Amino acid sequence: MSLKEKISIENFEDKKFKIRLIESEKDTEAAFTHYLHNQKNKASKFYKTDALEHVKNLLEYKYPDVDVSDKTAEEALQYLIFQQEDIPFPAPKKPDFKFIDLFAGIGGFRLAFQNLKGKCVFTSEWDKYSKLTYKANFGEVPFGDITKPSTKNYIPNEFDVLCAGFPCQAFSIAGKRGGFEDTRGTLFFDVAEIIKDKKPKAIFLENVKGLRSHDKGKTLATILNVLREDLGYFVPDPKVMNAKEFGVPQNRERIFIVGFRKDLNITEFDYPNPAKKKVTLENILENQTVSVKYYLSETYINTLRNHKARHASKGNGFGYEIIPNNGIANAVVCGGMGRERNLVYDFRLTDFTPVTNITGEVNKEGIRKMTPREWARLQGFPDNYKIVVSDAQAYKQFGNSVAVPAIQATAKKIIEKLKNI
Question: What positions constitute the catalytic site (predicted)?
């Protein structure tokens, strides 16, 4: 067996090797996985140099007594193309269009666009746990900090749609206009910079509903001005979309911003109408008995009740909430009362012996938190989507994610427009 044949995809899971990679400024691991998944399009050339470096580093790490030549690394890289791992969500074999996925999280945008026969040619996400989940499901390691020029340099030139669920940040608007330079220092500036440089046919941005009123409306006004005037895109008025209107039982409102390059002469765009199918919580709850670890202790329930009563006495409606099976969940969020505002009744538990360290006894009222899988379903992720992190990280990831069905319904409208040009 030759040296190149000794290496396999599994070799790249070596933890000590990955620790050494962290010390490098180059994102060679991401480049390696992106190269493997882009063999049939021109994007692969943006990744090959660092992908070769990644393979060579691994061979030198695994076999320190062997002189690894560039030719050997090249042969090993080509050999690895045929060893790609089995993943739940591979890209379509014959894609209709290409897109990039910025602030990718765990791939909600990617799922939606792949379902429409799109091929993702670049993705970035800085959170290390989200990267683990992303790789487990799509086979690619996202690139890291998108604010770094070194990361932007990996973005290929030819793609059709830019997707980004960027954070909401205030701008320091020097003048009344609110232009490109006014957004400098924010993550939207980096998105705008990529749009300016790569000029994709279409853009699809997602943000919290509060973007409309953020900084008295100045933030959204500046974003629209930059997209329309500085970057040259037709951008219809953004629309707040609710996940519960697209097939998931979650009251989750998010603002969608869609745009098309003006030279395409697209002058109108209609956001999708709500789906006719209405679903409730019982459509996404676990079929089997849930572990006792998801059931609240009597002590904690009493704490929640006292907390809610204190707020009620002050005229506030803040507190825990138990959602009926025929109801709609509140928005799942990664912090605050995210889990406590989406409690459910489940009377199937028979063994109340705690499996975690809790204060007091497990409650006998059937009150439990939703499981991470139930949160995944609330966001429209299919059941074969892998959850490979701790519960705490999974709640955070799904709480931060997009609702896939709402994204896909809008993405379908975008692609229909592009096909008709």
Answer: 168
The CA–CA distances, whole Å, from 213 to 72, 216, 218, 241, 316 equal 57, 5, 8, 16, 22
Q: Could you state, in chain order, the average pLDDT of each consecutive group of 10 residues for the chain (421 residues)?
A: 61 60 70 92 93 89 84 87 83 96 97 98 96 96 94 95 87 60 84 97 95 88 94 97 97 97 97 91 96 96 92 81 96 82 97 92 97 98 98 95 98 97 84
- Which distant-in-sequence residues (6+ apart) come within 8 Å of 149 by Cβ? none
SS3 content of the chain, % helix, strand, coil (to 5): 45, 15, 45
23 burial level (CB within 10 Å; 0-12, 13-18, 19+): exposed
Question: What pLDDT was estimated at residue 65?
Answer: 82
Alpha helices in 237-390 (DSSP H): 298-313, 372-378
- Catalytic residue list: 168
Give residue limits of the domains in the chain. Answer: 3-81, 97-276+403-419, 287-370
Beta-sheet pairing, 329-330 with 250-251 = parallel
Residue environment code for 243-281, b if the CB has 16+ CB neighbours within 10 A, otherwise e: bbbbbbbbebbbbbbbbbbeeeebeebebbeeeeeebbb
Residue 109 contacts residue 134 (beta carbons within 8 Å): no
Tell the CATH topology of 97-276+403-419. Answer: Rossmann fold (3.40.50)
The b-or-e profile of 163-176 (16+ CB within 10 A means b, else e) is bbbbebeebebeee
Structure tokens at 22: 């962290």
Q: Alpha helix locations (H) across 314-419? A: 372-378, 391-400, 404-419
Instruction: Return the SS3 of 394.
Output: helix
How much is the pLDDT for 177? 59
pLDDT at 233 (0 to 100): 98
